[in-house]
Amino acid sequence: MIASLSLILLCQLVGEVAVRALAVPGPGPVVGLVLLLLLLLARDRFPALARGPLGNDGVESASRGMLANLSLLFVPAGVGVVQKLDLLAEHGVAILVILAVSVIVTLLATVATFVAASSMFAREEENP
Amino acid sequence: MSDNPFSLWVYLSQSPLLWLTVTLLTYAATDAVSLKTRRHPLANPVLHSLWIIGVFLLLTRTSYTTYFAGAQFVHFLLGPATVALAVPLYENRRRVAAAVLPMLVALAIGSLTAIVSVVLLARAFGLPRDIILSLAPKSVTAGVAMGISESLHADPSLTAVAVILTGIMGAIIVTPLMNFTGITDFRGRGFAAGIAAHGIGTARAFQVDEVAGVFAGIAMSLNALVTSLLVPLAVTYLLR
User: Which of the residues B101, B133, B148, B220 could staple to B194 if both were Cys, CB 3.0 to 4.6 A apart?
Assistant: First the structure.
């Protein structure tokens, strides 16, 4: 458990350091995600790696536990809305309408593109 | 026990313990309600936790800074949880590898739509420039969006609020909207939720279907990368 959490934190730490050292504008945790993924893939190739947090479902179960409660983690930032009540009183309706319309348009555009593209690429594979 | 109940309150309200407990308890209660309603979209636990805690802070005249001193321990876990997305990604790697091309196309279109639609709408509504800049990165996860907002000299705390509101609205609307369109490809449904509504959409996707959750997680991570590059470009072109 502790070893698994440490491995996750370590991946994030390396990610944050890498992002800062290379002065790229990307998010450190995403680099950490890629690192952990590479470790898991490397374990398939080199069974010797399957020990400690990488063995016996260690990092897997710690990650699943964290992801099962992913929405909890957004609560503290979201409560920040109490600081913006004056701004919301002034522009709140406009902001809510804009965000709602934008999220609907984005959902539809993304899913339509995904479905169209996947059937297009599937057809190309069938008759190349 | 203190002879003055007020001094007890003063102690408690300044310690991280109280606000951490309030955050976890409120979420545990709203999440239990969400489970009881078989994850009905309107019983979204983030939405209901926000207003309950918000009202509690206003009634007790507690500042957000004091609250956050306790709640930051939960907030901190956003980073590790992003890293943890590697696990479902790894477990579904074959499915993901088979869908790389459609994902990249959908990423480009979705990410652009998210930014351009919000900037154009905000301009049409005549919002001031600094608000438009703060809203522009609203479809990526909180930490990344706040960083983008800062680099544009906008208001990161307004960006955080826009991010959370976007996430909640996306999480509420995605299931009914997708059912309405009749699209049953859970890879695409999840991917759209992750692009439009970042981690809150991803959390919702995991509640509905594991494959949807995995694709939402990938979408959210890729979008964090793409949006940090696209927002500065988009605002330069659209807000001249």
Answer: B220
Across the interface, do B178 and A107 touch by the CB < 8 Å criterion? Answer: yes
The reply to whether residue A26 touches residue B224, judged by beta carbons under 8 angstroms, is yes
- Whether residues A47 and A91 fall in one domain: no
Residues A41 and A104 in one domain: no
Pick from A21-30, A47-56, B50-59, B149-158 the range whose average pLDDT is largest.
Answer: B50-59
- C-alpha distance from residue B4 to each of A74, B8, B9, B59 (Å): 36, 7, 9, 20
Residues A119 and A93 in one domain: yes
B169 to A33: CB separation less than 8 angstroms, yes or no: no
Q: Could you tell me if B80 and A12 are in contact, meaning their C-beta atoms sit under 8 angstroms apart? A: yes
Confidence of residue B3 (pLDDT cuts 50, 70, 90): low
Q: Specify the number of domains making up chain A.
A: 2
Instruction: Answer yes or no: do A3 and A46 share one domain.
Output: yes
Q: What mean pLDDT do residues A1-21 have?
A: 90
Amino acid at B235: V
- Orientation angle between helical segments B156-181 and B186-208, nearest 10 degrees: 110
Q: Are residues B149 and B61 in the same domain?
A: no
How many Cβ pairs closer than 8 A exist between chain A and B? 303
State which residues form the domain around B136: 83-238
Residue B3: what are its φ and ψ, rounded to 5°? -75, -20
Which chain B residue lies closest to A93 (C-alpha atoms)? Answer: B125
Same domain, A100 and A51: no
Nearest to A70 among B183, B188, B203 (CB): B203
In this structure, what token pair is assigned to residue B6?
Answer: 């007020």
- State mean pLDDT over A105-121: 92
Q: Is the CB of A8 less than 8 angstroms away from the CB of B138?
A: no
Report the share of chain B in percent with pLDDT over 90.
Answer: 46
From A67, A100, A108, residue closest to B84, measured CB to CB: A67
Q: Which chain A residues are within 8 Å of B71, Cβ to Cβ?
A: 75-76, 79
